[in-house]
């Protein structure tokens, strides 16, 4: 399994450097940045001392959608509940979700928002689930570097505690794509991703046919539950959608207006 950390439009170079050090200390190495060059500023390198390899290995993307293109399961982070997501997972539930997806989701990403305003509602919608860290006091909130450190620690503990999840030792890079192939072959991985994407679009079309308002609570709930669906579940849901589509077509053809 590969774990990728994604920072969306970080503004403070020191925060990027702190994120690099946090990942290095917990044995992670995959860091992506969306629409920012903060990692190119000297302060980022100063703070990332000892984690230069993580800093140099940063991948950059213009949009979050591009950064998530090869990701099987994406987790948006937020300091508060968001109306766009009905389900908010705390650390234990987040780890349970990740374990549930092995081997169907060998590439997992956790997404962090801007220092001043976090992720936009649209960016949250692009992710499969929303996760948060319970705090004793809502204010002051954690800064970006602290959030990355805590999630890296929690995920490392969860991975190390589960014998079914491949784990690298602290200071060593994460499993490469070649290691990921041992968990799921590229063909099987690609097939599951495509089937889930197709299912997501199919569900949206079904809600349109049912004259449901886009973004309704029921639609949001249905889409969020896809995060828990494995390959077998996806196949079953495609069959269910096919039956519903057939019933809708039959109902429309028998209506007085047809």
TrEMBL record:
Residues 163-191 are annotated as: Disordered. PANTHER family: TRNA (CYTIDINE_URIDINE-2'-O-)-METHYLTRANSFERASE TRMJ, TRNA/RRNA METHYLTRANSFERASE. Residues 3-153 form the tRNA/rRNA methyltransferase SpoU type domain. The keyword Ion transport does not apply. One of its GO terms (molecular function) is RNA binding. This is tRNA (cytidine/uridine-2'-O-)-methyltransferase TrmJ. Keywords: Cytoplasm, Methyltransferase, S-adenosyl-L-methionine, Transferase, tRNA processing. Catalyzes the formation of 2'O-methylated cytidine (Cm32) or 2'O-methylated uridine (Um32) at position 32 in tRNA. It catalyses: cytidine(32) in tRNA + S-adenosyl-L-methionine = 2'-O-methylcytidine(32) in tRNA + S-adenosyl-L-homocysteine + H(+); uridine(32) in tRNA + S-adenosyl-L-methionine = 2'-O-methyluridine(32) in tRNA + S-adenosyl-L-homocysteine + H(+). Its main location: cytoplasm. Homodimer. GO terms for biological process: tRNA nucleoside ribose methylation. One of its GO terms (cellular component) is cytosol. It is an enzyme of class 2 (transferase). It is found in: Cytoplasm. Belongs to the class IV-like SAM-binding methyltransferase superfamily. RNA methyltransferase TrmH family. Its EC number is 2.1.1.200.
